[in-house]
Amino acid sequence: MGLGNRILSLASTFLYALLSDRVVLIDQVENFASLMCEPFPNTTWTLPLDFPITNIGSFDGKHPSSYGNLVKTKKIRNDGVDDPFSGHPPPSFVYLHLTGGYTSEDTNFFCEPDQLVLREIHWLLVRSDEYFVPALFLNSIFMPVLTLMFPQKEAVFHHLCRYLFHPSNEVWGMITRYYESYLAPAGETLGIQIRVFDEKQSPFDVVLRQVINCTLTQKLLPGIDLSHPAAVADRRKTKAILITSLYSGYLQHIRTMYWEHPAAGGVLVSVHQPSHEGWQNTGNKTHDMKAWAEINLLGFADVLVTSSQSTFGYVGQALGGVKPWILLKPENGAVPEPACVRDISMEPCFHSVPPYVCKEKKNGDNSRVVPHVIHCIDTPWGIKLVNQTV
Ligand SMILES: *[C@@H]1O[C@H](CO)[C@@H](O)[C@H](O)[C@H]1NC(C)=O
Ligand SMILES: *[C@@H]1O[C@H](CO)[C@@H](O)[C@H](O)[C@H]1NC(C)=O
Ligand SMILES: *[C@@H]1O[C@H](CO)[C@@H](O)[C@H](O)[C@H]1NC(C)=O
């Protein structure tokens, strides 16, 4: 699981813990401690090494203690009976399997009667890889508290992120050195985050043309001036572009474009990219530290252009509090039209929306319409929080 997904799912789990009056402890996997500071002074959010359940990492949807299986085998009843444990004491823990590909029994977790049952369980072990907060807003038990906690619906992840995720000293050093050297001197900064999921559908030259078309059409970057090759630049107008990508080709092309020709209006454009790792190498400490530093640097940009469905971009835009321009997914190797659109909210999109399984269906409709939750632009089947009442 990439770093973006880990951050999204931890923030979601933290919010669920607040709503259900629990504390969060995180399993000490991979190099999380080299990336993040402890959020609360003189205490730790890591699970003690002598925690009696040692094989948490191997839990999956087939585990007999998963909530879905406990419901399926009727060890837990979620149909509103007085004794959901049928005369037995509640289990000492329940495993919540909240990753994409979960069963409809697992997704009962999001329903009201199930939350009443889960209150009786002391320990919940959660595995998740997504931002499931929008689904918590669909639950009428949580909704009143969420409304009080977050008057601005599209700032939920922004607040959670800034509250919980503080880069370690090493990563903070990387962020500030890069920022001071390359971005702070510029009058304006534009962050461009390019993530290619399918190189057949989105070949390099198509994505490059898309990025250039998007930034020029939306006037995020100045065009080039072909008629004044020796135009004198105006040193007061400086623009720094920060590119984050696994590849260096985008940087080279855009930098060359503004070297071969002057930018319109005398703007001085500089192009920067902290790393180009070639492939996503999650679990490698140096790679993850660079990725986390780059996410934070995106958060310092004045304007953002991000790739559809990229959780890396979701975290950057939330840290910055910026509504990005989204590079729509190219199809069949063509630049989409328009090349990019402005997002409606800076909230992340929840991709693995559970099928609507809660009992009180309205009018046989399969999707409950609630205020502040709508389908995403970058992932039409996903849902996200917005400020407007829908
Ligand atoms: C943390 O612990 C140290 C050493 O015990 C103490 O000096 C400090 O005041 C504590 N800080 C907080 C915020 O409790
Ligand atoms: C962007 O693409 C559209 C559609 O192909 C085209 O009409 C427009 O001229 C392009 N704009 C730029 C600045 O390249
Ligand atoms: C980890 O990633 C860095 C680049 O960030 C690379 O230089 C190093 O070789 C990688 N280490 C391993 C063990 O893959």
TrEMBL record:
Keywords: Cell wall biogenesis/degradation, Glycoprotein, Glycosyltransferase, Golgi apparatus, Signal, Transferase. It is an enzyme of class 2 (transferase). It is a single-pass type II membrane protein. GO terms for biological process: cell wall biogenesis; cell wall organization; xyloglucan biosynthetic process. It comes from the Eukaryota. Residues 1-26 form the signal peptide. Its EC number is 2.4.1.-. Pfam families: XG_FTase. GO terms for molecular function: galactoside 2-alpha-L-fucosyltransferase activity. It is found in: Golgi apparatus, Golgi stack membrane. Its main location: Golgi. InterPro entries: XG_FTase (IPR004938). The keyword Lyase does not apply. GO terms for cellular component: Golgi cisterna membrane. PANTHER family: FUCOSYLTRANSFERASE 2-RELATED (PTHR31889), FUCOSYLTRANSFERASE 3 (PTHR31889:SF2). May be involved in cell wall biosynthesis. Belongs to the glycosyltransferase 37 family. This is Fucosyltransferase. It comes from Spirodela intermedia (Intermediate duckweed).
